[in-house]
Design goal:
single chain, alpha/beta, seven-stranded mixed sheet, 19 helices, binds pyridoxal-5'-phosphate
Length: about 500
């Protein structure tokens, strides 16, 4: 994922780790009936990527040995997969020129080298324990509201929404007002015209990147960061700069990057970072807002998608409620992004951007081109929930979350005592470091997949693809039921010996 688009075009070859990322959950047998030998699964997935144009015609595949190491399989497995591709006319090999995808019908999508993180969602696969996606099941209040909308909404409001033409590129006015009220309660005084509704937080980020960053322009992110933003940045052709951030961004490094690179955008997750779950300390927040004042041409994006998800570890550390968003400092270049996906339900696909009214107008124009607005009916239901039931839903979600966090944390402590991780103050994920003898978390994640556990290798969260850092980390989401989390960790513990890991 971390390889920018241009390198694929120029070099006409794909590296082993980049291909491993594109392969997604290739080794799970769920989607297939019949023969599920590993080499067949591998050949099938590569052939499918060639069919869809994600592996372009003429592209040179990685050497067998390198791909075998990246996938934690034997070299024979890769050799047999390549042979099958050759037998079926999908690939050809020449002495000294390696194995290439043969020319076939292709699409413009072939130029892209992104979506390493989302590939698990894009393909049909069945994983026993999916700890790779930090997504939550819907809260019961949300289920009730969707089943019986009139139980949360005045039927008059519902009818008024349905008798409109239904297209709201800025968002349903009622929901824009409700989100502005919600942000005001979180410490960021806002008005409806500073808010636009998006199809989840992901679209908010994608619109910002496509609208405010030209291809090739630099964008600074924490390293590690939310992998969805990296996919959006790579797909748009931005030049991504990672700021090393073990326990939050280092303001001196950020200052240096602003001075030397003048990025178009700086993306930060100050409250309950994804993946670490940490909170940016007050003095660092202060420095960041001072830097935003000094660089008014750079947009500073505060992603507060996870900001309300406070674990009780925060209380143990003597922390109060989460600090207000950075934009509370009142500068036009401080933008806030948020979503209800993690508190209510991802299937609602309701997120937002809060910013200067000029920015909101530009982005609404871009959203109109993309989808003419998010579904109005869902927006009406969310507006009602946000106004009347938010506290109850949040309280339910925090109980749900804390139970799962403590199951995962105690299983890790019991079964994998050598793994280390910063204690998260909130969020949905643990950022775990493998012990010294386990250097490559990508190969570990591949082996875990074949044992029914999906986890995210650190490089997918790294601007440098894990070359400089994050390569020995894994992200574990605690969104599955507690018993699934416990059995997933016991399965991971059995993989601690590399000898039993390499499959053929
Ligand atoms: C920090 C962060 N931002 C944005 C998103 C995307 O949210 P949504 O599901 O609303 O698109 C996520 C989802 O994991 C996230 O963790």
């Amino acid at each position: 994922m971390a390889e920018p688009i241009r390198s694929t075009l120029a070099g006409s070859r794909i590296g082993a780790t980049a291909l491993a990322d594109l392969l997604g959950h290739w080794s799970t047998r769920g989607g297939l009936a019949g023969d599920s030998a590993l080499y067949r699964l591998l050949a099938l997935r590569i052939a499918r990527l060639a069919d869809t144009g994600e592996l372009s015609a003429g592209l040179r595949l990685p050497p067998e040995r390198e791909l075998a190491a990246a996938l934690s399989v034997s070299r024979n497995t890769v050799a047999a997969a390549y042979q099958l591709l050759r037998d079926e006319g999908m690939a050809e090999s020449r002495q000294g020129a390696g194995t290439r995808i043969v020319p076939h019908r292709t699409t413009p999508a072939a130029v892209h080298r992104a979506n390493g993180f989302f590939s698990g969602l894009l393909e049909a696969s069945v994983v026993e324990a999916d700890l790779s996606i930090a997504a939550v099941a819907g809260a019961p209040q949300v289920a009730d509201a969707l089943i019986q909308p009139a139980s949360v909404m005045d039927p008059y409001m519902l009818r008024e929404t349905i008798t409109s033409n239904g297209y709201f590129p800025y968002g349903l006015p009622w929901l824009r007002t409700a989100i502005a009220g919600h942000l005001t309660r979180l410490g960021l005084p806002s008005t409806a015209d500073e808010v636009m509704v998006t199809t989840g937080g992901q679209q908010a980020l994608d619109l910002l990147v496509r609208g405010e960053v030209l291809p090739g322009q630099p964008v600074a992110v924490e390293d590690p960061t939310f992998p969805g933003v990296l996919d959006a940045l790579h797909r748009s052709g931005a030049s991504v700069i990672g700021i090393p951030a073990d326990d939050g961004v280092d303001p001196d490094r950020l200052d240096h990057i602003l001075r030397t690179h003048r990025p178009a955008l700086v993306y930060l997750i100050p409250t309950h970072d994804n993946p670490t779950g940490l909170v940016m300390p007050a003095d660092v927040r202060h420095r960041v807002t001072r830097l935003a004042a000094a660089y008014p041409d750079t947009l500073f994006v505060d992603d507060m998608t996870l900001a309300e998800l406070t674990l009780d570890t925060a209380l143990a550390f003597g922390e109060g409620p989460p600090p207000p968003p950075l934009a509370a400092a009142g500068l036009a270049n401080l933008v806030t992004v948020g979503s209800l996906s993690k508190v209510y339900w991802g299937g609602l696909r309701v997120g937002w951007i809060r910013g200067d009214t000029g920015l909101i107008s530009r982005l609404a124009a871009a959203k109109a081109t993309a989808d003419l607005g998010s579904p109005a009916f869902q927006q009406a239901i969310v507006a009602a929930l946000l106004e009347d039931q938010h506290d109850a839903i949040l309280a339910w979600r925090l109980d749900w979350l804390r139970e799962r966090y403590s199951a995962l944390a105690s299983a890790l402590t019991t079964y994998l005592p050598e793994w280390t991780w910063p204690v998260p103050r909130g969020g949905l994920t643990i950022w775990a470091r493998l012990p010294g003898h386990e250097q490559d978390s990508g190969a570990f994640a591949q082996a875990a997949l074949r044992h029914g556990v999906a986890i995210v290798p650190g490089r997918l969260l790294s601007a440098t693809g894990g070359r400089i850092r994050s390569g020995d980390y894994l992200r574990l989401a605690f969104t599955q039921p507690p018993e699934v989390l416990t059995s997933a960790v016991t399965a991971l513990a059995q993989l601690s010996s590399p000898a039993i890991r390499v499959a053929s």
